[in-house]
Amino acid sequence: MAERIGAKRALYLSLAVYAVIISLGYFMTTALHFYLLAIVVGFVQGGSQAVARSIFSRLVPRRQSAEFFGFLSVSSKLSSSFGPFVFGLASQLFKSSRMGILALLVFIIGGMIMLMFVNLDKGRIEAEEADRAAAAA
Q1: Structure confidence at residue 137 (pLDDT)
Q2: Rounded to whole angstroms, how far apart are CA atoms 60 and 95?
Q3: Within 10 A of 122 (CB to CB), how many other CB atoms are there?
Q4: Is the pLDDT of residue 3 over 90?
Q5: pLDDT for residue 85 is more than 90
Q6: Which terminus, N or C, of the chain has the lesser number of Cβ atoms within 10 Å?
Q7: How many domains does the chain have?
Q8: In which domain, by residue range, is 51 found?
Q9: Residue 94 phi/psi, 5° resolution?
Q10: 83 Cβ contact partners less than 8 Å away, ≥ 6 residues apart
């Protein structure tokens, strides 16, 4: 799909699907609802992660890829703690796990807003220039 519509649009689409999943999660009442949402997550999880890493790899100077992907790894581990923390905090504050689910929309919407400001062409060019400068040094 990323080849057909572009990586950035594919990532937007997967984030939009996640927003729908989270919104529908608010209305879950049965185990069947949970399993159906889990199936939808299964359809978008791998693809969205692959597209995001692909975009990231184009914005990273090749000579510094280990540093950048190391930072990505650490930040992903941090976010895997921060998301559940926000979920739990919102659930406690609002006395409802449904509000905890909705609180996760902040991450999705925030990601979509940040993605709007990412210029993939400019980032790729700057990464290539950094590689050339490092090779010349």
Answers
A1: 79
A2: 43
A3: 10
A4: no
A5: yes
A6: C
A7: 1
A8: 2-136
A9: -100, 0
A10: 104, 107
The pLDDT value given to residue 2 = 85
87-133 confidence digits (pLDDT tens)? 999 999 999 999 999 999 999 999 999 999 999 999 999 999 999 99
Write down the residue that tokens 């049965």 correspond to: 30
Question: What is the distance between the alpha carbons of residues 110 and 37, in angstroms, rounded to a whole number?
Answer: 22
Average confidence score pLDDT of the chain = 93
